[in-house]
């Protein structure tokens, strides 16, 4: 069960009204790399998890992400406090009000006009939150890798937001949230490498004829080599030598019944293009140098 602690996980101290910044911070509230996406990602994985250690970790981190959602949502609300009452009560001239909700030049109509100053489950561009942000597949070695990448992206968005604000309290709280994504990435990496073997993901091995082949699919200057495509781990196949890699003809075939094939050929004949035809078309009728119509 869940219960709520009235204190925030990190104390929010906002120096002043800044509706524009509030709008940008929505990215980490209802955006694809945001805290709701993180919380729902780990919560759903935890509920389906059969390994007691991973289940416990995923529930702890999911619950912490909800605490982050509360922190970032509270910052959004605080940054909007100044403009919120003014907009709701309409006590000043329209132009002054317009300036108030536009902060430091950033359009804040999403948080102000649409949502009355509170955080909404949308990204900074106003795109509604969607479960499609979560790519869980139900195989821990694949999901942990995706979780590591999700934490990396969240860290980067926080880093960019930190660079955007000079409000020391906001900077500090965002720094905490950013740091926790680093800690989560470390936990997920440890959990991933605690599964042996963890590569390739799943149970089926790859076809050994293809698992260590690098297809150099481009021709011309500019080929680069590194450990990712050269050395003892790789067999390089050049584009110029390209043939069907299975040793077959490379042409597709399908078995059909005689009746299916007869019907298919009837359709192909009916829809055949005549290579000797040069019909006058609407595109030509509309151009300046049109053919003479007899
Ligand atoms: Mn978080
Ligand atoms: Mn996290």
Largest sheet: 2 strands, parallel
Looking at the overall shape, the CATH architecture of the largest domain is Up-down Bundle
What fold name stands as the CATH topology of the largest domain? Answer: Ferritin
- Which structural class fits the helix and strand makeup? mainly alpha
State the CATH class of the largest domain.
Answer: Mainly Alpha
Enumerate the strands of the largest sheet in spatial order, edge to edge or round the barrel. Answer: 1-2
Order of helices and strands, N to C?
HHHHHHHHEEHH
Amount of helix = 40-55%
Q: Determine Rg (CA atoms, Å).
A: 29 Å
Residue share in β-strands: under 5%
Distance between the termini: 83 Å
Oligomer: single chain
Write out the distinct hetero groups bound to the structure: manganese (II) ion
Total of DSSP H or I helical runs spanning 4+ residues: 10
């Amino acid at each position: 069960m869940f219960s709520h602690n009235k204190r925030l996980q990190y104390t929010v101290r906002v120096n002043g009204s800044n509706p524009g910044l509030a709008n940008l911070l929505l990215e980490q509230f209802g955006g694809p790399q945001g805290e709701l996406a993180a919380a729902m990602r780990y919560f759903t994985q935890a509920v389906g998890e059969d390994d007691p250690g991973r289940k416990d970790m995923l529930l702890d981190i999911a619950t912490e992400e909800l605490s982050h959602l509360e922190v970032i949502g509270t910052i959004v609300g605080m940054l909007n406090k100044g403009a919120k009452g003014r907009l709701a009560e309409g006590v000043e001239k329209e132009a002054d009000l317009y300036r108030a909700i536009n902060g430091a030049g950033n359009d804040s109509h999403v948080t102000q006009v649409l949502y009355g100053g509170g955080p909404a489950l949308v990204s900074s561009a106003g795109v509604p939150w969607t479960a499609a942000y979560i790519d869980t597949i139900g195989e821990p070695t694949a999901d942990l890798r995706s979780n590591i990448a999700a934490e990396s992206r969240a860290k980067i968005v926080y880093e960019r937001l930190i660079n955007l604000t000079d409000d020391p309290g906001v900077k500090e709280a965002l720094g905490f949230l950013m740091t926790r994504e680093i800690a989560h990435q470390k936990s997920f990496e440890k959990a991933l490498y605690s599964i042996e073997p963890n590569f390739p993901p799943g149970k089926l091995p790859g076809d050994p004829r293809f698992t260590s082949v690098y297809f150099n699919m481009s021709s011309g200057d500019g080929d680069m080599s590194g450990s990712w495509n050269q050395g003892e781990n790789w067999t390089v196949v050049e584009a110029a030598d390209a043939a069907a890699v299975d040793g077959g003809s490379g042409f597709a075939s399908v078995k059909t019944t005689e009746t299916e094939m007869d019907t298919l050929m009837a359709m192909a004949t009916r829809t055949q293009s005549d290579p000797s035809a040069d019909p006058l078309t609407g595109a030509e009728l509309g151009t300046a140098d049109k053919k003479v119509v007899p």
